[in-house]
Specification:
The protein is α/β, with parallel strands linked by helices and 234 residues long. The protein has 2 domains: 144 residues, HAD superfamily/HAD-like (Rossmann fold, 3-Layer(aba) Sandwich); 77 residues, Putative phosphatase, domain 2 (DNA polymerase, domain 1), CATH 1.10.150. Strand 4, helix 9 and strand 5 form a beta-alpha-beta unit.
Length: 234
């Protein structure tokens, strides 16, 4: 018997290689508009994008505004005036093609699926996340995909987690495990709802936040052990 009945995985940089998908999508949209694709332009976009997502995580902005503003700000910084709505739409279309999984992610999910119900919980944009999920091998293994844009609230808000739990049949919270790489969204949100947590931390980063996960895993082998081996969680 597994230690948990439900495993809620974050998507990007927990199961999916978002950095690779982002890199390829950004390259495509910049080159299509005549921008150079180099370290300078990539780093400029990433700095703008990450700051805006941090503001979203703090509840300061809406996602619908964020995804357009990131390209408006980038275009302004480059001295251009491209249509940010079209820019974003094209980027998301390319991003939806990037169904790259982290090494071992598919094997992990296939090992877990006979023992637990698996779900993905993501703050990503539905247009991209649905495309990436549908194109990945996980579409045949993970029955649930919960996207903040469709739920109407983002992690870490309880308004995101509570509808997810309801859709799963309101299971006992000690039988639900949240796995994610982001302490301020995945781990904080799960803790606020009384759920068990694993911080997926392959880079061995220090925890500089107030939120302490119950467990930490640097690789998928350790994660599988925590889920399936009763001795691992004692």
């Amino acid at each position: 018997m597994a230690n948990f009945d439900f495993i809620l995985f974050d998507a990007d940089n927990t199961l999916f290689d978002f950095d690779k998908a982002e890199h390829e999508a950004l390259r495509a949209v910049l080159e299509a508009r005549g921008y150079p694709f180099n370290d300078q332009t990539r780093d400029l976009y990433l700095s703008i994008n990450r700051e805006l997502w941090a503001r979203l995580d703090r509840g300061e902005v809406k996602q619908s505004w964020l995804v357009v503003e990131r390209f408006a700000a980038f275009s302004r910084a480059m001295g251009r005036d491209d249509d940010p709505v079209e820019f974003n739409r094209d980027y998301l279309d390319h991003l939806a093609q990037g169904a790259f999984l982290l090494p071992g992610a598919e094997e992990l999910c296939r090992h877990l699926a006979p023992h637990c119900t698996l779900a993905i919980i993501t703050n990503g944009v539905a247009r991209a996340q649905k495309g990436r999920f549908a194109r990945s091998p996980l579409a045949g293994v993970i029955p649930y995909l919960f996207i903040s844009e469709e739920i109407g609230a983002s992690k870490p808000s309880p308004d995101f987690f509570e509808p997810v739990l309801h859709r799963l049949g309101d299971p006992s919270r000690d039988r639900v495990l949240v796995v994610g790489d982001n302490l301020s969204t995945d781990i904080r949100g799960a803790l606020d709802c009384g759920l068990s947590t694993v911080w997926y931390n392959p880079k061995h980063l220090p925890n500089t936040t107030p939120w302490t996960p119950r467990w930490e895993a640097a690789d998928f082998s350790r994660l599988e052990e925590l889920i399936l081996d009763p001795a691992a969680i004692l």
